[in-house]
């Protein structure tokens, strides 16, 4: 019993340790705040909760059916990286060129007229995908799912490994919610000017990450062609 429990905990920690550095929820807090600068505090709480739910579904779906979906449509992981990198680059570019919410005289009232359906759509795109769960974490989730498919036999493969993955993804999603839910407190110590500067720097880093992800995907596609020559 103890050996089974230790194996379960090790699998949970393994999945969480693989996903968290890629997703980096604390580092994405400035991005979330910049994207929701014109939303009310209540709407931010709702968005945080919906993003966590979507992140859970996206990661779990990528882990267990992502590889099959890509095979069905004939899409390779490098193509996913290029497409996801383009989305991240576009979102980061918009963040770099957006006016801070404080500079807009109507910024305090804009969020009051957003419908719940519009908030759900915004929670999924671009906040949940590709900003929170991007092509990097999707690739990791697909890889983890493939590795669990070869983990032992019987109940260990069909019960313990899927359950451990579900618990790990749930913990990661809760951590995402907590970081976004209390993001304003995390940045309050920086002050208004410091927060704006930090958000701009984060947007630039996100832009660089998007370009890097696109480059990684393009390199994986081009290397076999160059090697063939």
Keyphrases for this structure?
229 residues, 10 helices, globular
What's the gist of this structure?
This protein is mainly α and 229 residues long. It has one domain (13-96, 116-228).
Explain this structure.
Its main location: membrane. This protein is mainly alpha-helical and 229 residues long. The protein has one domain (13-96, 116-228). The protein has 10 helices and no strands. The chain has helices at residues 2-23, 25-35, 41-73, 77-97, 107-110, 116-132, 135-148, 155-181, 183-188, 191-228. The longest helix has 38 residues, at 191-228. The model is unreliable at 102-108 (pLDDT under 50).
Write the layout of secondary structure elements.
Layout (H helix, E strand, L loop, with lengths): L1 H22 L1 H11 L5 H33 L3 H21 L9 H4 L5 H17 L2 H14 L6 H27 L1 H6 L2 H38 L1
Helix pairs in contact: 1-7, 1-8, 2-8, 2-10, 3-6, 3-7, 3-8, 4-10
